[in-house]
Amino acid sequence: MGAIESAAAETEHIALGEDRPLQWNVTQSNGSTPQNMSGWTVEFNLLDQQGGQALITKTPATIQNGAATLDQAEVTIDAADWSGITKPGSYFYTLHRSDSGSVALLAFGEFVVHAALAA
User: Buried (b) or exposed (e) across 54-76, using 16+ Cβ within 10 A?
Assistant: First the structure.
């Protein structure tokens, strides 16, 4: 399976401290056929930079129905997850399959963290 790189228009955006689910529809390497991820372990990492230190790790991601059966990965970023991130900025994320013998990058790209929402 090939990696699916998010295009610039699909860069993830979130406000510092925001609680929000993030979803990715995963396709097979042809880029159009939904990928059934039944039985997979999927992990999300928010890194300080590409190839850098993980600031948030969420595993396993929830696998659910998107465009087809079990083809959507979802992680929820909670308020407690933000403890290691103190300022807005541009970060890097990865979403990858991490079950034994089947490591594969599913999605990656820029992850923009904006200033905290006003209360």
Answer: ebbebeebebeebeeebbbbbbe
Rg of the Cα atoms in the chain = 14
**For the structural domain made of 4-114, what CATH number should be given?**
2.60.40.10
Q: What is the pLDDT of residue 119?
A: 60
Segments making up each domain of the chain, as ranges: 4-114
- pLDDT tens per residue, the chain (119 residues)? 444 544 333 578 899 999 999 988 888 888 888 889 888 999 999 999 999 999 999 998 899 888 788 888 999 999 899 998 989 999 999 999 888 788 888 888 999 999 987 66
The answer to whether the beta carbons of residues 92 and 49 sit under 8 Å apart is yes
